[in-house]
Amino acid sequence: MHRIIEKKQLSAEVYEMTVEAPLIAGARKAGQFIIVQIDTEWGERIPLTIADADAEKGTITMVFQTVGATTHRLAVREEGGFLENILGPLGNPTHIEKYGTVVCVGGGIGAAPLFPIVQALKAAGNTVQVIMGARTKELVIFEDRMRRHADEITLVTDDGSYGKKALVTGPLREYCAAPSKPDMIIAIGPPVMMKFCEKTAAEFGVPILVSLNTIMIDGTGMCGGCRVTVGGETKFVCVDGPEFDGHKVDFENMMLRMKAFREREEEEHHKCHIGLGLESVQE
To answer: How far is the C-alpha of 233 from the C-alpha of 229, rounded, in Å?
Structure first.
């Protein structure tokens, strides 16, 4: 059993939850994830990336969006309550070294799993430039945390309500076109965002690492739902990743597969919002 220490609502459908998990907090590394089981009655296990951890306090922090039934039920759990099981840390950690200058790109909720990577890169002696993008100002998360570690932050929104009105590829192109281009790019966010970040990186000959955690389902490699094509080979995100060389990822195939259950997910999302009273949450 894992006690919920703190819960915050970051936007209409995005929540941050800190829970007691001392063994995981002490062992986790940037880029790794956990599997959460809320209770035995609703036994579905879902993979969530570790957004932060405090080894001294024995806590880990996860950020999630209410999409399916389990994340909706997780969203109504309150501080002081408990989660039945948390397994981790899982997945291969991000390869951290002193590259020189690294541009980290986070799209929407992707800023949360990007944060521990920014921390680790900075601790390794890199110059870290962060680009954070969201549809609107209300959907920008983890800005304060990022500012404590990044050397430079660029904020962009689709509607121009915060930072620059642009897509993340706009400032990314500027960094890549500069006389001293980045030594590495790391991108986490929607697949279409990562796809165009890769195209920008390829144009300037810059290596790029992408995290494909959004396609994970079971998190153990048994369901096969997270299979992707990388360098012409079939890989499973949960056991072979979640991070891969972006220049080798078949994003078209990945995005096509992610659409397979979209209609069912939207139906479940609507039902849960009504059933659990989340439709009253204000943006």
So the answer is: 5
Q: How many whole angstroms separate alpha carbon 215 and alpha carbon 265?
A: 13
Backbone angles phi, psi at 231, to 5 degrees: 60, 30
pTM of the model: 0.89
Alpha-carbon distance 277 to 120, whole Å? 39
Cα(25)–Cα(208) distance, integer angstroms:
28
Span 242-275, pLDDT tens digits: 999 999 999 998 888 776 555 555 555 556 655 5
Q: How many CB atoms lie within 10 A of CB 39?
A: 14
Residue 45 identity: R
The angle subtended at Cα 161 by Cα 157 and Cα 162, nearest 5°, is 65
Angle between helices 251-258 and 191-204 (to 10 degrees): 170
Question: CATH classification of 2-90 is 2.40.30.10, yes or no?
Answer: yes
What angle is formed at CA 110 by the lines to CA 277 and CA 78, rounded to 5 degrees?
35
* Distance of alpha carbon 16 from alpha carbon 153, whole angstroms: 22
Decide: 182 and 104 in contact? Cβ < 8 Å: no
Each residue's pLDDT tens digit, 135-145: 999 999 999 99
The domains of the chain are located at: 2-90, 101-258
CATH number of 101-258: 3.40.50.80
CB-based contact 213:242 (threshold 8 Å): yes
